[in-house]
Amino acid sequence: MPTHADPVPGGRPGDLERATALSGELAARGVHGIVLAYVDTAGVCRVKTVPTAKLPSAATWGVGMSPVFDTFLGDDGIVTTDVLGSPDGDLRLYPDLDRLVALQAQPGWAWAPVDRINQDGSRHPGCSRTLLRRAVAEAAERHGITFRAGIEIEWVFCLGDAPDGEFVPATRGPAYGAARQVELGDCAAELLAALAAQDVDVEQFHPEYAPGQFELSVGALDPVAAADRSVLVRQTVRAVAERHGLRVSFAPAVAAAGVGNGGHVHLSAWHDGANLHAGGEGRYGMTARAEAFTAGVLAHLPGLTAVTAPSPASYLRLKPSQWAGVFTAWGPEARECAVRVITGSVGRRGREANVEVKPVDLAANPYLALACLIAAGLDGVTAGAVLPEEVRGDPALLGGEEAAARGVRRLPTSLAQAVAEFRGDALLRTALGPVLADAVSAVREGEIAAVAGLDDAQVAAAYRWTY
Ligand code: GLU
Ligand code: MG
Question: Which residue among 20, 56, 216, 347 is least packed, with the fewest CB closer than 10 Å?
Answer without folding.
Answer: 347
